[in-house]
Amino acid sequence: MSTTHKLLSISPNELIEFLKTIGITRFYFIYDKKDKRVIPSHKELKPIADFLNLDKRDFNFHEGLFFRISKKYDTLLGAFIHRTNRGQAAGGVRYWDYESMEDYLRDGLRLSKGMTHKNALAGLWWGGGKGVMAHNPEIDKNDPEIRSGIYREYGELITSLRGCYVTAEDVGTNVDDMSNIFSRTRFTTCIPPSLGGSGNPSIPTARGVVAGMKAALKFSAGAALKGKTIAIQGMGNVGSPLIKFLFEEKVKKIIACDIFPEVVERAKHEFAGENLEAYIAERIDASIFGADCDILSPCATGAVINPQTIPLIKAKIICGAANNQLEDSERDGKELHKRGIIYIPDFLTNRMGIVNCANEQYGYVNDDPFIERHLLLDWKHSVYQTALHVLNESKKTNQPSAKVAVRLADKISKENHPVFGHRGQQIIDSLVADKWHEQI
Ligand code: NAD
Questions:
Q1: Buried b (16+ CB within 10 A) or exposed e, 408-425
Q2: What residues flank ligand 1, with Cβ below 6 Å?
Q3: Active-site residues: which are they?
Q4: What percent of the chain shows pLDDT beyond 70?
Q5: CATH class of 3-200+426-438
Q6: What is the domain partition of the chain in residue ranges?
Q7: 212: closest CA among 252, 249, 264?
Q8: In this predicted model, what pLDDT tens digit does every residue of 283-295 receive, in sequence order?
Q9: What is the pTM (predicted TM-score) of this model?
Q10: From the CB of residue 192, how many other CB atoms can be counted at a distance below 10 Å?
Q11: Which of 38, 307, 315, 403 might form a disulfide with 296, Cβ 3.0–4.6 angstroms?
């Protein structure tokens, strides 16, 4: 097995063991724009830099990837900084299980790039980044002491990066975890309201999904949500208020599933008297994709639109909150387009999570116009108008909506911040100049 393959096929824990034997606790990979290649902090990690240099799928000239081994809990803590032209890289921190380093790196690369696109398309003056913490299966992540310790260390990592990445909540991370991060760094959003944060963004996110559905209906048939049937996968923080908003729009029926019986029971109870068909689904149950409906709304996990599920889909529109719904953006976007299924790109319609917390430091006003305008039908950059623009472009150019949206977002993401310019890159340069990787 080649060294490259070895460093990528081992688990994050095995990598940690290897790094300990050669005395590495911090390391990075930065993209050198002059040399046009990824440079590792340590020569021993060149195989990973080679992998990044050769990868065509997920690596996208990410400005910097910074990692640290947790001092106490043998956990790999990472910050993936994709692009900072529009401002500091912003995106949540995910705490997840990864079988291999390749899985871990690919997740961070893909998610951070996705955040660049999401933030840019929303017109936010933020770049794109993502935090990824690899769960060490040998520790109990639900032990309150261990958990708070890991998140405090994550906050220390963020502080050490001097503000080129600003973290937030994501899958596997909760509000208490954010308080622990906040106890060690100022570079975070999504802190609890008791500490001045904006609180749970799921309700605005659900409203953003409704706006995306309205745009898709307007584009396809000039129609409204009234009388339509919607199928929803996942009735969690977003799925549940989404059901409420859709019934307020007088949809005819909602078919929804969740893997947890208590979630299904709660929904049946909450929406008793409404035309809700809620059922328990196994994690691998794809029946919701074949539901007889007008709109399919994935609100559970990513990669659910793929060659196995696409042939089942009866809906003419897909619009949901889940991140990275298309397993392969290029392949699956093309297939949906070919089949005439309107796909509202997830990062366009689920932007309200980041919109809600992005500008916490500017304080709050009632019905905040900086947030509410994203949900208006007439603001040029609202979810509704952006979705219509993308769908019209998709029709005009005969290209998948996902591709059109990425192209538009990519262009916007390269505009420099009007006041601070490309400061995130300057911060990264200064970290490298100051030998960040040699500090403890
Ligand atoms: P959540 O964890 O509260 O809800 C997800 C629900 O989906 C859970 O109830 C879970 O049991 C269910 N589920 C998981 N796998 C399933 C499966 N195979 N079939 C059916 N149900 C399944 O998460 P959430 O906050 O509601 O977010 C939902 C999705 O939207 C996630 O992908 C998230 O990353 C994305 N998102 C959320 C926000 C937000 O503001 N919360 C913002 C942007 C994107």
A1: bbbebbeeebeeeebbbb
A2: 171, 201-202, 205, 233-239, 257-260, 263, 281, 283, 299-301, 321-323, 350, 353
A3: 130
A4: 99
A5: alpha beta
A6: 3-200+426-438, 202-358+382-399
A7: 249
A8: 999 999 999 999 9
A9: 0.93
A10: 16
A11: 315
Residue 10, token pair as written in the block? 């081992």
CB 241 within 8 A of CB 203: yes
List the residue whose alpha carbon is closest to atom 24 of ligand 1.
Answer: 237
Secondary structure class of 109 (helix, strand, coil): helix
Over residues 183-209, the mean pLDDT reads 93
| Both structure tokens of 214 | 């309205």
Please report, as a single letter, which amino acid is at residue 425. Answer: Q
Cβ neighbour number for residue 283 with a 10 Å cutoff: 7
Instruction: Report how far ligand 1's centroid is from the alpha carbon of 48 (Å).
Output: 32
Domain 202-358+382-399 is in which class? alpha beta
Q: Which residue has the tokens 């040399």?
A: 35
Residue for token digits 């929804």?
256
Q: Could you give the CA distance from residue 338 to residue 352 in angstroms, rounded to a whole number?
A: 29
Residue 408: the pLDDT is 97
In the structure encoding, which two tokens stand for residue 104, read together? 């871990």
Nearest atom in ligand 1 to 204's CA = 40
- Tell me, what's the pLDDT at 3? 60
